[in-house]
Here is the input.
Amino acid sequence: GNSVTQMEGPVTLSEEAFLTINCTYTATGYPSLFWYVQYPGEGLQLLLKATKADDKGSNKGFEATYRKETTSFHLEKGSVQVSDSAVYFCALSDLDRSGGSNYKLTFGKGTLLTVNP
Amino acid sequence: NAGVTQTPKFQVLKTGQSMTLQCAQDMNHNSMYWYRQDPGMGLRLIYYSASEGTTDKGEVPNGYNVSRLNKREFSLRLESAAPSQTSVYFCASSGRQGGLPNYGYTFGSGTRLTVV
Here is the structure.
């Protein structure tokens, strides 16, 4: 079955530090990969995605590259801000390639990031 | 604003009580999902509905039932609540945009349920 393993937190950084959150996956098919972010008291929001090997997803200064050879999708940001404090989830899906809109996401356990001023 | 609306936001139940968590989306999405979030466990899928009129079990369905009332609404019912069901519950939906699958789920803001 599908599974996602991401680095355990919590991660605590100072403002403007470099961020890496590791994510590796196991999938039987050819999945799409996602990072979601959850701010305190809120639901999850899609941060970025990549749908095929070597694709780079990016949003709000965050980046992640789909590496099929290492089955990884590590999240990076060059300079974090206090407002980036949140829980980050790596996820994968096996897309219904017949064109349907249904697919199930498999999530990692989440990594809590705290950024101090 | 368009999105997924969940009610209630907070609930405390006594063991053995029943309740229904409500979820509605206004994005004309075909698929809807219920997840629970527990510390150190990430999100686990309880039930999902690929389209109106269909429902299927996810990873942790025991103790729950669901109803896809129409395309907009997908409810989750706890018939006899147990302390192990203390969790944060999220509803989500997914659909198509511009004729292509929308790869992102849209999540509600969650229901915090405590069973004492």
